[in-house]
Amino acid sequence: MTVSEPVPDPADFDRVADVTCPYCGEEVEVILDPGGASHQQYVEDCEVCCRPWHLDVRWDRRGDASVTARTEEQ
Ligand SMILES: [Zn+2]
Fold first, then answer.
1. In Å, what is the CA distance from 47 to each residue of 19, 29, 37?
2. What's the gap in Å between 4 CA and the centre of ligand 1?
3. Of 4, 14, 26, 69, which has the maximum CB count within 10 A?
4. How remote is the CA of residue 45 from the centroid of ligand 1, in Å?
5. In angstroms, what CA-CA distances link 39 with 8, 10, 33, 64, 69?
6. Which residues contact 19 (CB under 8 A, 6 or more apart)?
7. Which pLDDT band holds residue 37 (cuts at 50, 70, 90)?
8. What is the pLDDT of residue 72?
9. Per-residue model confidence (pLDDT) at position 40
10. Could you read off the pLDDT of 44-74 as tens digits, one per residue?
11. What residue ranges do the domains of the chain occupy?
Protein backbone atom coordinates (compact mmCIF):
# COMPACT_ATOMS: atom_id res chain seq x y z
CA MET A 1 0.00 0.00 0.00
CA THR A 2 1.28 3.46 -0.90
CA VAL A 3 -0.73 5.82 1.23
CA SER A 4 1.86 8.60 1.30
CA GLU A 5 1.78 9.23 -2.47
CA PRO A 6 1.12 12.99 -2.82
CA VAL A 7 0.02 12.91 -6.46
CA PRO A 8 -3.60 11.89 -6.98
CA ASP A 9 -3.88 8.66 -8.90
CA PRO A 10 -7.20 8.35 -10.76
CA ALA A 11 -7.08 4.59 -10.17
CA ASP A 12 -7.50 5.23 -6.44
CA PHE A 13 -10.39 7.66 -6.81
CA ASP A 14 -13.81 6.66 -5.56
CA ARG A 15 -15.96 5.24 -8.35
CA VAL A 16 -19.18 4.87 -6.43
CA ALA A 17 -20.90 7.04 -3.86
CA ASP A 18 -24.10 6.92 -1.87
CA VAL A 19 -26.47 9.77 -2.58
CA THR A 20 -29.61 10.59 -0.65
CA CYS A 21 -32.34 11.53 -3.11
CA PRO A 22 -33.55 15.10 -2.46
CA TYR A 23 -37.02 14.10 -3.68
CA CYS A 24 -37.87 10.72 -2.16
CA GLY A 25 -35.17 10.45 0.54
CA GLU A 26 -33.92 7.03 -0.57
CA GLU A 27 -30.19 6.35 -0.44
CA VAL A 28 -29.00 5.27 -3.87
CA GLU A 29 -25.54 4.21 -5.04
CA VAL A 30 -24.31 6.16 -8.06
CA ILE A 31 -21.49 5.27 -10.42
CA LEU A 32 -18.88 8.01 -10.82
CA ASP A 33 -16.39 8.68 -13.60
CA PRO A 34 -13.14 9.93 -12.04
CA GLY A 35 -11.48 9.95 -15.45
CA GLY A 36 -12.92 13.41 -16.12
CA ALA A 37 -12.45 16.60 -14.17
CA SER A 38 -12.11 16.53 -10.39
CA HIS A 39 -15.25 18.65 -10.20
CA GLN A 40 -18.23 17.53 -12.25
CA GLN A 41 -21.83 18.65 -12.48
CA TYR A 42 -24.43 16.71 -14.38
CA VAL A 43 -27.99 15.45 -14.26
CA GLU A 44 -28.92 11.87 -13.43
CA ASP A 45 -32.34 10.41 -12.73
CA CYS A 46 -33.10 8.81 -9.37
CA GLU A 47 -33.38 5.03 -9.70
CA VAL A 48 -36.23 5.00 -7.21
CA CYS A 49 -38.50 7.92 -8.18
CA CYS A 50 -37.01 8.77 -11.61
CA ARG A 51 -36.78 12.49 -10.89
CA PRO A 52 -33.70 14.40 -12.06
CA TRP A 53 -30.86 14.97 -9.63
CA HIS A 54 -28.53 17.85 -10.33
CA LEU A 55 -25.35 16.23 -9.12
CA ASP A 56 -22.26 18.07 -7.95
CA VAL A 57 -19.30 15.69 -7.64
CA ARG A 58 -15.89 16.60 -6.26
CA TRP A 59 -12.87 14.48 -5.51
CA ASP A 60 -10.36 15.65 -2.95
CA ARG A 61 -6.59 15.10 -3.21
CA ARG A 62 -6.90 11.66 -1.66
CA GLY A 63 -9.52 10.59 -4.17
CA ASP A 64 -12.46 10.69 -1.78
CA ALA A 65 -15.61 11.64 -3.61
CA SER A 66 -18.07 14.17 -2.23
CA VAL A 67 -21.43 14.06 -4.01
CA THR A 68 -24.32 16.46 -3.54
CA ALA A 69 -27.72 15.95 -5.17
CA ARG A 70 -30.07 18.89 -5.56
CA THR A 71 -33.51 19.34 -7.00
CA GLU A 72 -33.80 21.22 -10.27
CA GLU A 73 -35.17 24.31 -8.54
CA GLN A 74 -31.83 25.13 -6.90
ZN1 LIG B 1 -35.78 9.54 -5.60
1. 11, 9, 24
2. 38
3. 69
4. 8
5. 14, 13, 11, 12, 14
6. 27, 28, 29, 30, 53, 55, 67, 69
7. confident
8. 85
9. 96
10. 999 999 999 999 999 998 899 999 999 987 5
11. 10-70
